[in-house]
Amino acid sequence: MGAGGLGDDALGAMRSTRPLFSRAACAAVREASRVSKRPLLLAFDVDGTLAPIASRPAQARVPRTTLTWLARAARLPGVHVAVVSARPLRDLRRLVPVPRIERIAQYGLEGPFAPSPATRRRFHRAALLVGEHLRLVVAPFHGAFIEQKGLSVAVHHRALSPRRSAALRGRLRAVEPETRARGFGTQLGDHVNDFVPVGYDKGRALRALRKRVRPGVTIFFGDSAGDEPAFAALAPADVSVCVGSGPTAARYRVRGPRDVGRFLSALVAERTQQPSLRRR
Predict the structure, then answer these.
(1) Within-domain flag for 280
(2) pLDDT tens across 78-90, in order?
(3) What is the rounded CA–CA span in Å between residue 125 and residue 234?
(4) Residues 6 or more apart in contact with residue 259 via CB below 8 angstroms
(5) 180 and 132 in one domain?
(6) In a domain, 277, yes or no
(7) How many CA atoms lie within 13 A of 159 on its CB side?
(8) Rounded to an integer, what distance in angstroms lies between the CA atom of residue 211 and that of residue 104?
(9) For residues 84 and 230, is the Cβ–Cβ distance under 8 A?
(10) Could you list the residue range(s) of the whole structural domain that residue 138 is in?
Protein backbone atom coordinates (compact mmCIF):
# COMPACT_ATOMS: atom_id res chain seq x y z
CA MET A 1 0.00 0.00 0.00
CA GLY A 2 1.48 3.31 -1.05
CA ALA A 3 0.86 6.63 0.62
CA GLY A 4 -2.20 7.06 -1.59
CA GLY A 5 -3.83 4.14 0.24
CA LEU A 6 -3.43 5.73 3.67
CA GLY A 7 -5.99 8.05 5.23
CA ASP A 8 -5.19 11.41 6.81
CA ASP A 9 -4.72 9.90 10.27
CA ALA A 10 -2.41 7.22 8.90
CA LEU A 11 -0.41 9.80 6.95
CA GLY A 12 0.07 11.77 10.14
CA ALA A 13 1.29 8.64 11.88
CA MET A 14 3.58 7.92 8.95
CA ARG A 15 5.22 11.32 9.26
CA SER A 16 5.79 10.87 12.99
CA THR A 17 7.18 7.30 12.89
CA ARG A 18 10.10 7.15 15.32
CA PRO A 19 13.09 4.80 15.69
CA LEU A 20 12.17 2.09 18.17
CA PHE A 21 15.62 2.11 19.75
CA SER A 22 15.69 5.81 20.61
CA ARG A 23 15.81 6.47 24.34
CA ALA A 24 12.34 8.00 24.47
CA ALA A 25 10.77 5.21 22.41
CA CYS A 26 12.40 2.49 24.52
CA ALA A 27 11.06 4.12 27.67
CA ALA A 28 7.56 4.43 26.17
CA VAL A 29 7.47 0.80 25.03
CA ARG A 30 8.82 -0.41 28.36
CA GLU A 31 6.17 1.55 30.24
CA ALA A 32 3.40 0.34 27.92
CA SER A 33 4.37 -3.29 28.46
CA ARG A 34 4.21 -2.84 32.25
CA VAL A 35 1.04 -0.81 32.55
CA SER A 36 -1.53 -3.62 32.75
CA LYS A 37 -1.94 -6.80 34.73
CA ARG A 38 -3.48 -8.40 31.64
CA PRO A 39 -1.26 -10.36 29.19
CA LEU A 40 1.25 -8.76 26.87
CA LEU A 41 0.58 -9.88 23.28
CA LEU A 42 3.60 -10.02 20.98
CA ALA A 43 2.65 -10.60 17.34
CA PHE A 44 4.91 -10.76 14.31
CA ASP A 45 4.73 -11.04 10.56
CA VAL A 46 7.30 -13.57 9.29
CA ASP A 47 8.87 -12.71 5.91
CA GLY A 48 10.81 -9.46 6.13
CA THR A 49 10.12 -9.28 9.87
CA LEU A 50 11.35 -12.40 11.66
CA ALA A 51 13.02 -13.83 8.53
CA PRO A 52 15.09 -11.83 6.05
CA ILE A 53 13.47 -11.66 2.62
CA ALA A 54 14.59 -14.51 0.35
CA SER A 55 14.50 -14.84 -3.43
CA ARG A 56 11.95 -17.65 -3.21
CA PRO A 57 9.61 -18.60 -0.34
CA ALA A 58 11.28 -21.98 0.27
CA GLN A 59 14.64 -20.30 0.88
CA ALA A 60 13.49 -18.13 3.80
CA ARG A 61 14.83 -18.89 7.27
CA VAL A 62 14.27 -17.31 10.67
CA PRO A 63 17.72 -16.87 12.29
CA ARG A 64 18.45 -19.37 15.03
CA THR A 65 19.11 -16.61 17.56
CA THR A 66 15.69 -15.09 16.85
CA LEU A 67 14.03 -18.48 17.32
CA THR A 68 15.82 -18.80 20.64
CA TRP A 69 14.53 -15.43 21.84
CA LEU A 70 11.01 -16.23 20.58
CA ALA A 71 11.05 -19.46 22.57
CA ARG A 72 12.21 -17.64 25.69
CA ALA A 73 9.60 -14.92 25.23
CA ALA A 74 6.85 -17.54 24.82
CA ARG A 75 7.81 -19.06 28.18
CA LEU A 76 7.55 -15.76 30.06
CA PRO A 77 4.61 -15.47 32.47
CA GLY A 78 1.94 -13.13 31.16
CA VAL A 79 3.29 -13.05 27.60
CA HIS A 80 1.42 -14.47 24.59
CA VAL A 81 3.41 -14.81 21.33
CA ALA A 82 1.89 -15.19 17.86
CA VAL A 83 2.88 -15.05 14.22
CA VAL A 84 0.38 -13.59 11.74
CA SER A 85 1.38 -14.37 8.18
CA ALA A 86 0.34 -14.73 4.55
CA ARG A 87 2.18 -18.06 4.60
CA PRO A 88 0.39 -21.43 4.69
CA LEU A 89 0.30 -23.13 8.09
CA ARG A 90 2.75 -25.82 6.94
CA ASP A 91 5.33 -23.09 6.24
CA LEU A 92 4.85 -21.47 9.63
CA ARG A 93 5.42 -24.80 11.38
CA ARG A 94 8.68 -25.17 9.45
CA LEU A 95 9.88 -21.59 9.81
CA VAL A 96 8.90 -21.05 13.45
CA PRO A 97 9.22 -24.46 15.15
CA VAL A 98 8.79 -22.94 18.61
CA PRO A 99 6.49 -24.38 21.32
CA ARG A 100 3.69 -22.24 22.81
CA ILE A 101 3.50 -19.88 19.82
CA GLU A 102 0.17 -19.20 18.12
CA ARG A 103 0.34 -19.57 14.32
CA ILE A 104 -2.21 -17.62 12.29
CA ALA A 105 -1.70 -18.45 8.62
CA GLN A 106 -2.98 -17.14 5.28
CA TYR A 107 -4.45 -13.97 6.80
CA GLY A 108 -6.46 -16.03 9.31
CA LEU A 109 -7.75 -18.62 6.84
CA GLU A 110 -5.72 -21.28 8.73
CA GLY A 111 -5.18 -21.53 12.45
CA PRO A 112 -7.43 -20.78 15.42
CA PHE A 113 -9.78 -18.44 13.53
CA ALA A 114 -10.14 -20.43 10.33
CA PRO A 115 -13.57 -20.52 8.68
CA SER A 116 -15.69 -23.65 8.63
CA PRO A 117 -14.60 -26.74 6.66
CA ALA A 118 -17.33 -26.09 4.08
CA THR A 119 -16.14 -22.51 3.60
CA ARG A 120 -12.53 -23.65 3.29
CA ARG A 121 -13.50 -26.17 0.63
CA ARG A 122 -15.26 -23.42 -1.30
CA PHE A 123 -12.26 -21.10 -0.98
CA HIS A 124 -9.93 -23.91 -2.09
CA ARG A 125 -11.92 -24.54 -5.27
CA ALA A 126 -12.05 -20.83 -6.03
CA ALA A 127 -8.32 -20.42 -5.36
CA LEU A 128 -7.53 -23.07 -7.96
CA LEU A 129 -9.60 -21.22 -10.55
CA VAL A 130 -8.05 -17.86 -9.63
CA GLY A 131 -4.58 -19.41 -9.89
CA GLU A 132 -5.30 -20.77 -13.36
CA HIS A 133 -6.50 -17.35 -14.49
CA LEU A 134 -3.44 -15.65 -13.04
CA ARG A 135 -1.07 -18.07 -14.79
CA LEU A 136 -2.18 -16.65 -18.11
CA VAL A 137 -1.37 -13.14 -16.88
CA VAL A 138 2.01 -14.08 -15.40
CA ALA A 139 3.22 -16.34 -18.24
CA PRO A 140 4.80 -13.54 -20.36
CA PHE A 141 6.82 -12.28 -17.36
CA HIS A 142 9.82 -14.60 -17.12
CA GLY A 143 11.02 -14.76 -13.51
CA ALA A 144 7.62 -14.17 -11.92
CA PHE A 145 5.76 -17.20 -10.58
CA ILE A 146 2.51 -18.34 -8.99
CA GLU A 147 2.32 -19.91 -5.52
CA GLN A 148 -0.87 -21.86 -4.82
CA LYS A 149 -1.22 -21.78 -1.03
CA GLY A 150 -4.43 -23.77 -0.80
CA LEU A 151 -6.84 -21.02 0.25
CA SER A 152 -5.07 -18.09 -1.39
CA VAL A 153 -2.79 -17.45 -4.36
CA ALA A 154 0.42 -15.42 -4.51
CA VAL A 155 2.11 -13.84 -7.51
CA HIS A 156 5.81 -13.35 -6.78
CA HIS A 157 7.74 -10.86 -8.90
CA ARG A 158 10.95 -10.11 -6.98
CA ALA A 159 13.12 -11.38 -9.83
CA LEU A 160 11.70 -8.87 -12.33
CA SER A 161 13.28 -5.55 -13.17
CA PRO A 162 11.46 -2.51 -11.72
CA ARG A 163 9.98 -1.77 -15.13
CA ARG A 164 8.74 -5.32 -15.71
CA SER A 165 7.48 -5.57 -12.13
CA ALA A 166 5.45 -2.38 -12.60
CA ALA A 167 4.05 -3.75 -15.87
CA LEU A 168 2.99 -6.99 -14.18
CA ARG A 169 1.38 -5.15 -11.28
CA GLY A 170 -0.59 -3.15 -13.81
CA ARG A 171 -1.79 -6.35 -15.50
CA LEU A 172 -2.77 -7.77 -12.11
CA ARG A 173 -4.77 -4.66 -11.27
CA ALA A 174 -6.56 -5.01 -14.59
CA VAL A 175 -7.76 -8.54 -13.76
CA GLU A 176 -8.89 -7.71 -10.23
CA PRO A 177 -12.56 -7.44 -11.33
CA GLU A 178 -12.38 -11.05 -12.55
CA THR A 179 -10.74 -12.35 -9.36
CA ARG A 180 -13.13 -10.32 -7.22
CA ALA A 181 -16.03 -11.91 -9.07
CA ARG A 182 -14.75 -15.21 -7.65
CA GLY A 183 -14.58 -13.64 -4.19
CA PHE A 184 -10.85 -12.86 -4.08
CA GLY A 185 -9.34 -9.44 -3.38
CA THR A 186 -5.69 -8.34 -3.34
CA GLN A 187 -3.26 -7.94 -0.44
CA LEU A 188 0.12 -6.43 -1.27
CA GLY A 189 3.38 -7.71 0.19
CA ASP A 190 7.05 -7.11 -0.55
CA HIS A 191 7.25 -7.89 -4.31
CA VAL A 192 4.23 -10.15 -4.02
CA ASN A 193 0.52 -9.77 -4.77
CA ASP A 194 -1.65 -12.09 -2.68
CA PHE A 195 -5.13 -12.95 -3.89
CA VAL A 196 -7.17 -13.68 -0.78
CA PRO A 197 -10.88 -14.23 -0.06
CA VAL A 198 -12.52 -10.84 0.38
CA GLY A 199 -12.71 -9.74 4.01
CA TYR A 200 -9.61 -11.59 5.17
CA ASP A 201 -6.55 -9.56 6.11
CA LYS A 202 -4.09 -9.30 8.98
CA GLY A 203 -6.21 -6.66 10.68
CA ARG A 204 -9.13 -9.06 10.95
CA ALA A 205 -6.82 -11.82 12.21
CA LEU A 206 -5.20 -9.60 14.83
CA ARG A 207 -8.55 -8.28 16.06
CA ALA A 208 -9.75 -11.87 16.56
CA LEU A 209 -6.58 -12.73 18.44
CA ARG A 210 -6.84 -9.66 20.67
CA LYS A 211 -10.49 -10.42 21.42
CA ARG A 212 -9.56 -13.90 22.61
CA VAL A 213 -6.34 -13.07 24.50
CA ARG A 214 -7.66 -9.76 25.93
CA PRO A 215 -4.17 -8.29 26.30
CA GLY A 216 -3.35 -5.15 28.22
CA VAL A 217 -0.98 -4.16 25.42
CA THR A 218 -0.30 -5.58 21.95
CA ILE A 219 3.04 -5.12 20.17
CA PHE A 220 2.94 -5.94 16.46
CA PHE A 221 5.87 -5.98 14.01
CA GLY A 222 5.34 -6.02 10.23
CA ASP A 223 7.22 -4.92 7.14
CA SER A 224 4.87 -4.43 4.17
CA ALA A 225 1.58 -2.99 2.97
CA GLY A 226 -0.08 -6.26 3.92
CA ASP A 227 0.67 -5.45 7.57
CA GLU A 228 -0.95 -2.01 7.53
CA PRO A 229 -4.43 -3.42 8.36
CA ALA A 230 -2.89 -4.98 11.49
CA PHE A 231 -1.32 -1.65 12.48
CA ALA A 232 -4.74 -0.05 12.00
CA ALA A 233 -6.38 -2.69 14.21
CA LEU A 234 -4.31 -1.70 17.26
CA ALA A 235 -5.59 0.45 20.10
CA PRO A 236 -3.96 3.81 21.02
CA ALA A 237 -2.06 2.20 23.91
CA ASP A 238 -0.62 -0.52 21.68
CA VAL A 239 2.74 -0.51 19.90
CA SER A 240 3.09 -0.81 16.11
CA VAL A 241 6.53 -1.29 14.56
CA CYS A 242 7.41 -1.16 10.86
CA VAL A 243 10.43 -3.24 9.87
CA GLY A 244 12.35 -1.47 7.12
CA SER A 245 11.65 1.63 5.06
CA GLY A 246 8.57 2.78 3.20
CA PRO A 247 5.32 4.55 4.05
CA THR A 248 3.53 3.23 7.11
CA ALA A 249 1.04 4.12 9.80
CA ALA A 250 3.18 2.37 12.42
CA ARG A 251 4.35 4.47 15.39
CA TYR A 252 7.88 3.05 15.43
CA ARG A 253 10.41 1.68 12.99
CA VAL A 254 13.41 -0.64 13.00
CA ARG A 255 15.86 -1.28 10.17
CA GLY A 256 15.42 -5.01 9.62
CA PRO A 257 14.85 -8.50 11.05
CA ARG A 258 18.06 -8.35 13.07
CA ASP A 259 16.55 -5.50 15.09
CA VAL A 260 13.44 -7.59 15.74
CA GLY A 261 15.68 -10.19 17.35
CA ARG A 262 17.38 -7.43 19.29
CA PHE A 263 14.02 -6.22 20.59
CA LEU A 264 13.07 -9.74 21.67
CA SER A 265 16.33 -10.22 23.54
CA ALA A 266 15.85 -6.88 25.30
CA LEU A 267 12.26 -7.66 26.25
CA VAL A 268 13.24 -11.06 27.67
CA ALA A 269 16.04 -9.37 29.61
CA GLU A 270 13.61 -6.77 30.93
CA ARG A 271 11.14 -9.41 32.04
CA THR A 272 13.83 -11.50 33.72
CA GLN A 273 15.42 -8.53 35.48
CA GLN A 274 18.57 -8.49 33.34
CA PRO A 275 20.10 -5.44 31.60
CA SER A 276 17.36 -3.98 29.45
CA LEU A 277 16.80 -1.97 26.28
CA ARG A 278 19.80 0.17 25.55
CA ARG A 279 20.34 3.02 23.20
CA ARG A 280 22.77 2.45 20.34
Answers:
(1) no
(2) 999 999 999 999 9
(3) 33
(4) 20, 21, 243
(5) yes
(6) no
(7) 12
(8) 14
(9) yes
(10) 117-197
